[in-house]
Amino acid sequence: MTDDGDAGHAADVLDGAGLDAVDGDVLDALVDGDADGDGSPSAEPSLFDGPAEFDDAGVQAFLRSAPDSETLRPALQRLTADQRALIGSFVDGFKSRAAFLEWCQDAAIRTLGELDGEWFRARAFTRLDLSVLVTTDARERYAPESGDVLSRRQAAGVRRGVVLADILPACASAYRRLRWSATEYVNDADDSFVPDPDVQEHTAMRPALTELDERQGWAIRRLLNGLPSEDALFAWLQAVTEASYAEVDGDLGRRLNGERRARAYLLDDIDDAERHLARWFRESFAAHYVLPGFAEAASEVGKRAGELAERDAEDLNFPKMG
After folding, report:
1. 3-class SS at 188?
2. Tens digit of each residue's pLDDT (9 = 90 or more) over 268-286
3. Where is average pLDDT lowest: 76-80, 267-271, 283-287, 314-318?
4. Positive or negative, the Cα torsion across 241, 201, 178, 82?
5. Are 266 and 223 in contact (CB under 8 A)?
6. How many angstroms from the chain centroid is the CA of residue 30?
7. Which pTM value belongs to this model?
């Protein structure tokens, strides 16, 4: 446990990692609001008036009418499919701030870092954004003022607006970066193998991105749940360096050395009365210090990773026996 004078309130720890979410203006423009001129959202629907959840079945039915192509680079098709799933998850919303941060790590990989750390950080520290992103009753805590919470259908409409404004452009930028480095497979007499995008395991058919995704996902989940000991904290910091290709600040450990309260929050080594504050701190720590470096790493790996085409069992030509 820590002394009261060690680090003060957690909002002052590590240069103000931001325990107190600040009001923002990013999602404001996407809300049909202020009809009364008092800063509160109006009762009218937001930009979209669709269902509260992503219509995945309808989208899949729509896509079945699209033409098949054996010449479009399959790595690009795999990337597009992964990004479509990412968008669906965003439209559905999140059970908690922590769940949104896990989505951010996933988004860094699937947009090749084009949806960057600054975007993640801004969303995670803005009350209005969180009141729209979170779908459980916890969203009422994030509303700038009591009662200023959109209906679930309206909130989903705002999230669809964010897809158009921010997420789809990031997806398009990732596609643009990969378009000419992705392999084009030509069906000819010498080699008739054309990879099926639906059976590819790796995002953009790049195993390095899958490995990075697994390492980053593990690091984020362990942080959000609280680390088991100070010795485990040392190992976690090394794992973060590895998972970010040293894009996360290497001085983070040195800064934590003088902050006993911060270390206690990271370890969840606190009284029950402070447990909620500790969870908020770990989420803020992830958003402020870890996710931006993870996005940078995804960007760099996306530039350099090699492509691997996986074959379905039907594509394998085994020699006949006997």
Report:
1. coil
2. 778 888 899 999 999 999 9
3. 314-318
4. negative
5. yes
6. 21
7. 0.77
